[in-house]
Amino acid sequence: MNEITRRGLIYGGATTAAYGLLVGVERVCLAAFADKTQPEDDPGPVKIVKFADDGARLGIYALAKVRKNKSEWKKQLTPLQYDVTRRGATEFPFSGALYDQHAPGLYRCVDCSNALFDSKAKFDSGTGWPSFWEAIAAENVREKKDFSAGVLRTEVKCTLCDAHLGHVFPDGPEPTGLRYCMNSAALHFVPRKS
């Protein structure tokens, strides 16, 4: 059993039923977990929408991308957070702290604090991962084609720091029909004060 399996990780976006199939292709897919700490794109600036912790929209800002080397990320993040956000791994279903979180609040990127999702768009998808029908702002996340598990999926990344968050699927509820299936380890929940 390799290090990734011992830590309870699987390849992103799989349902519980499909997990058994994915374990069988583990050796083939290990290359998908290559270190992703180096910039993938132009370093910026990028445009994001800033939000206060109470969910109030503060406006659009042009910012340089957050860039850190491997050792800086490892100092900041837990091993699980590092594996998920910087190496593209995924938690086991129903193992993350936020999949069953129903309190009102804001979900921020654990790596850079960029606002990603509002609890108003969260729903119970039954998959075991926090699921949302839309991002808090289209500018704050970016999508990338992903073939790492042997099937074409759409990876969701933080626009500001390129952290791997999860995947988006076209089987969500109205009004968007989307299911942003995220990792708890990639998110920091900020409760909304009443």
Helix/strand layout:
Layout: H1 3-6, E1 9-10, H2 16-24, H3 26-29, E2 46-51, E3 57-63, H4 70-76, H5 79-87, E4 90-91, E5 105-109, E6 115-118, E7 122-123, E8 131-132, E9 141-146, E10 153-158, E11 164-169, E12 179-182, E13 187-191
What does this 3D model show about the protein?
- The protein is an alpha+beta fold and 194 residues long.
- It is 17% helix and 29% strand.
- The chain has 5 helices and 13 strands.
- The protein has helices at 3-6, 16-24, 26-29, 70-76, 79-87, and strands at residues 9-10, 46-51, 57-63, 90-91, 105-109, 115-118, 122-123, 131-132, 141-146, 153-158, 164-169, 179-182, 187-191.
- The protein has a 6-stranded antiparallel beta sheet.
- A hairpin with a 7-residue loop joins strand 7 and strand 8 (131-132).
- The longest helix is centred in the N-terminal third of the chain and has 9 residues, at 16-24.
- It is globular, with a radius of gyration of 16 Å.
- The protein starts with a helix and ends with a strand.
- 38% of the residues are buried.
- Residues 1-39 have low confidence and may be disordered.
